[in-house]
Amino acid sequence: MRGDGALEKIIITGVAGFLGYQLAETLLSEGCCILGIDNLSTGRMQNIDKLSVHPNFSFIKHDICSENLFQLKEITDIDQIYHLASPASPKYYQKFPFETIEINTLGTKNMLELSKIHNAKMVYLSTSEVYGDPEIHPQTEDYRGNVNTWGPRACYDEGKRLGEVFCYLYHSLFGVQIKVARIFNTYSAGLRNDDGRVISNFVNQALKGEEITVYGDGSQSRSFCYVDDTIRAIRLMMKNDAANGEIINIGNPNEITVLNLAKLIKELTNSPSDIVFLPLPKDDPKQRRPNIDKAKKILDWEPKVSLDEGLRKTINVYQSSSPN
After folding, report:
1. What gap in Å lies between CA 111 and CA 63, rounded to an integer?
2. For this structure, is 156 an active site residue?
3. H/E element, 262
4. SS3 category, 18
5. Under a CB-based contact definition with an 8 Å cutoff, are residues 171 and 178 in contact?
6. β-bridge mates for residue 250, sequence order
């Protein structure tokens, strides 16, 4: 609520996507007025249909890289911007590499310009992918990364890195209230069944009794954060002025190998599936785990949902929505 009694008006880019939809639901439940923007290249219209029943939600199908963004009559009196728009799964950012670069560079610049014009606070969702295949473990925010610019993941990794540069410039030169969240693997049943990310793949394969496909020997490790914890963190970033001009890791510091994740999901689903091994994709990181000391200090945040609990919730929803 604003000081004048009006509802806060918040833009969410990528509102039809996994995190955008979940964030919009949370903010609407808190009494905010949401203007969602999405070009629906990877987002789902069914998410917009669910949100549109709420009187405080409005939607624009639009490409935020477009110059005419600033002429849209709906964009007035903006208080906050959550810039989530971007393909986030390798399946999709490798399918749309140039669009992925543009949304994280030109699109990010446009949203920062809107923040400057409206004196709005902004959270930019960056990614742990900026660390590449890290040579230090766990990763801290001051680690500069080990990213290959000449490979299939570079469009996403380097696009996000340059997006962070735009954030730095708008903050340091123009005083824009920008906060950068480096998101590590986030999951829930809200992930598309065909998303291609590891948990949605494993759960769907296990429930269908199909082979569970592990890439490489499965010794590579990841840290998985349940979506409720991730949403809570980025909400805290928006609210907390101490986060202005800061990059903060958001993720669960508990680590698991991909093979052990496959075994755990097989066990939790009581699946007869066999675990099979396929060649490891190029530039697939060997380890990924956040140091969240900064999030603890600035936001007083750390994850609450364990992997076992989060997977059980995810599996239950997938099971209930299965046609079988």
Report:
1. 12
2. yes
3. helix 258-268
4. helix
5. yes
6. 183
pLDDT higher than threshold 90 for residue 192: no
What is the domain partition of the chain in residue ranges?
A: 9-187+225-253+288-305, 198-220+255-285+311-321
Domain 198-220+255-285+311-321 has CATH 1.10.10.10: no
User: What residue type is assigned to position 175 of the chain?
Assistant: G
- Count the Cβ atoms, other than its own, within 10 Å of residue 19: 23
The one catalytic residue in 92, 156, 226, 318 is: 156
What is the Cα 319 distance to its own chain's centre? Answer: 24
- pTM given for the model: 0.94
- CA 92/CA 198 separation, integer angstroms: 14
Q: Taking a C-beta distance cutoff of 8 angstroms, is the pair 130, 185 a contact?
A: no
Could you read off the pLDDT of 113-150 as tens digits, one per residue? Answer: 999 999 999 999 999 999 999 999 999 999 999 999 99
pLDDT beyond 60 at 323: no
Integer angstrom CA distances of residue 126 from 73, 162, 277: 28, 10, 30
**Side-chain half-sphere CA neighbours of 121 within 13 A:** 20
Cα of 119 vs its chain's centroid, Å: 24
Architecture field, domain 9-187+225-253+288-305? 3-Layer(aba) Sandwich (3.40)
